[in-house]
Input
Amino acid sequence: MSRTGRPCTPGIDVDPDMLYTDDNGVLTSAGVAAGIDLCLHMIRGDHGADVAM
Output
């Protein structure tokens, strides 16, 4: 990622409003809080919303 917040790799789209992304099994996040949200997303997907809460 460059200092402008744009990816250094052509063909990569960055959405600065997304905390995390799950695109066909490729999961990624930026920052600690977003990583926790991503973990909860994965738990919710595997075990349901009641377990993730």
User: Anything to note?
Assistant: The longest helix spans residues 32-47. The first strand starts at residue 20 and ends at 23.
